[in-house]
Hints:
- The chain has helices spanning 4-12, 14-19, 23-29, 34-56, 63-66, 69-75, 98-103, 108-112, and strands at 80-86, 92-96.
- With 113 residues, the protein is mainly α.
- It has a two-stranded antiparallel ribbon with strand order 1-2.
- The chain starts with a helix and ends with a helix.
Amino acid sequence: DTKPALSEALIRCPDIVNNETTRLLFLWCTDFDAVAAAQRMVRYWQLRVEIFGNDRAFLPLDSEAILDEDDRNQLFTGAIRILPHTDAFGRTIFYVDQQKLHARSFDARSAVR
């Protein structure tokens, strides 16, 4: 079975599947190719479990639910910042200060969360 994370999400958090990961967003990303959109949604939930772990992947994506103390500390280093403007396609731009990353121990998994 290639979709255990999505299947688990449909059982544990159907509201999140239907609201945070609306099918329409996946369809837009794939030019309305339903098969590609479904594959993308499956991969999204697989990555969500890989990044957050089985205990937090099925919680809402907000800092209170998914970030532990180490994750919050990582945010306060200032090594990764969200810039106030978006790129030409409206995407968020992140700035990574390499000096701050190397100045202390850096946990890449924590930074991704």
